[in-house]
Description:
With 91 residues, the protein is mainly alpha-helical. The N and C termini lie far apart (43 Å). The radius of gyration is 18 Å and the shape is globular. 53% of the residues lie in helices and 7% in strands.
Amino acid sequence: MPIAVDIDVMLAKRKMSVGELSDRVGITPANLAVLKNGRAKAVRFTTLAALCEVLECQPGDLLRWEPDGPGDGDGAAHASRASVPAASPPR
Length: 91
């Protein structure tokens, strides 16, 4: 997946356990593990904000984009959309 989650890095920097973080954020340890291990399909902004507040960090400290490997097709699809010229305004 092109979005990598670095919650474990911030946990280590803050010397905090998963259990303590889940208690302070208000999500279950299981749901935090899904997010931490990169298996989540989405994250609510309220959850992201709570994580940032507790960990005293920015969203970019927890999430980063990694390009897909060559040959999987996603990169080409995004590139082709970017090269489509904008439609002319109506006259």
